[in-house]
Amino acid sequence: MRPEKEYSKEFIENYQQSFSLMRKSNIHIFKDDSNSLIKTIEVYVNMLCMCLFFVSYTTWVIMMIIDRSDILKLVLKLPVYIALIQAFIKSVLLAINQKGIKNIITHLGRNWRVDGLTAIQTTKKYQLINRFSLLQKAFYFVSISCIFVILMEPIVNMLTRKFILHQETKLVLPFPSLFPFDPFKNWLLYITVYIFQVYGVMGFVYAYMGAEFLMGAFCLHLIVEFTLLREDLLLIKPKEGGKSEDFCDDEIKKFVKRHQDLIMLCNQLDDVFNGINFTALLSVTTIICLFAFSAKVSHDMLNIFINCLSVFGILMYLFIMCLYSELLANEAVGVAESAYSNLWYNCGTRYHQKTQFIIMRSQKICCFTCLKFTPISLNTFSRVLSSTWSFLSLIMSVLDDEY
């Protein structure tokens, strides 16, 4: 099934970027109709390159830990390796939760509202979509810029020194790896290994970014649905001698049904992403500290720029994740405010009871959690920044004299 044929263009276009990125990392939420031999070979080649790249990088890290001859070099290369592990875990979790992801998309797509909206609802809806699009474009630009600089800096730097400045220089790969042969034996072998590393690491990058884009699209649609739902509740205006109590009951029953569906989808969304969010929060402090330390000890302005850009990209990812969760929680809790603002006192007891139930049910926050334990919000972002700064200050104070 191709989702662009099943659902409205307005709905599915917010998922196209994430689908495209995840397909490049061999994660297919919806099966492709065209199963050509070339695509099958491409999938296996991509998987093989990713696995071999990860194994070669892991082998180098293990050998450096055993050898202990150059701990500083190991520390400088660890943040990228930890990010690779994080991307690998995300890939596995996305693959495991493919069915759950597909169910959420199916449910949201079938209930996505295009027609029958008021002017206020339409305005709020497209404001949210435009803000989401701007935020995602900014994250994509920063992420691609960061990985592009990391991948191209070694070869550009080496070629500049060798052919323009006419300086003696060694061949350098973008990532340290251990091979059963010498990758610097000749230019052909060097270029081949370089392309292999670029191709291998991009699979992890696509998985890393695809998870964020997918999470963002889910949050956007749930936030939009909660926003429209709040306006629906405000449109129910019972008046004495006006709407009958039976009509009010029918309206509120429809509202409660949609509200329950959204709460269920929020719970399913958290089931899919709580492990991914835990992985991100678990490693983000370590990665930021290591990148910041690398920038501190580096004497090359380009390396300082790369490390600072990497820190900015990771912080941006963390901020977006916390912001999505915060906005989703605010809109879900805001349903209670809309229910209280409704003219519930002009209807009978049954209407009062249903309104009270809506208010009580809305008190339970719908947001991302860390392994179903800790809610994620902008306070989480500030706490991570605080702890990261504390650890970084400690590292700098201990190692300041040595480096």
Question: What does this protein look like?
Answer:
The chain is mostly helical. It has 11 helices and 2 strands, in the order H-H-H-H-H-H-H-H-H-H-E-E-H. The chain has a two-stranded antiparallel ribbon. The chain has one domain. It is elongated. The mean pLDDT is 86. Helix 2 packs antiparallel against helix 7 (187-235), helix 4 packs antiparallel against helix 8 (245-297) and helix 8 (245-297) packs parallel to helix 11. The chain has helices spanning 3-6, 9-24, 37-67, 71-96, 98-110, 119-164, 187-235, 245-297, 301-341, 349-361, 378-399, and strands at residues 369-370, 374-375. The chain crosses the membrane at residues 43-66, 78-96, 138-160, 187-207, 272-295, 301-320. Its main location: membrane. It is found in: Cell membrane. This is Odorant receptor.
Summary tags:
403 residues, mainly alpha, two-stranded antiparallel sheet, 2 strands, elongated
Could you give a short description of this structure?
78% of the residues lie in helices and 1% in strands.
Q: Specify the helix fraction band.
A: over 70%
Domain unit count:
1
Strand order of the largest sheet: 1-2
Cα-based radius of gyration, to the nearest Å: 26 Å
Amount of beta strand: under 5%
Biggest sheet features: 2 strands, antiparallel
Query: Secondary-structure element sequence?
Result: HHHHHHHHHHEEH
Please report the number of helical segments.
11
The beta-strand count equals 2
| Mean pLDDT, all residues | 86
| Low-pLDDT residue intervals, each spanning 5 or more residues | none
Q: How far is it from the N-terminal to the C-terminal residue, by CA?
A: 57 Å
What's the quaternary structure here? single chain
Query: What class, by secondary structure content?
Result: mainly alpha
**What best-fitting shape do the alpha-carbon axes yield?**
elongated
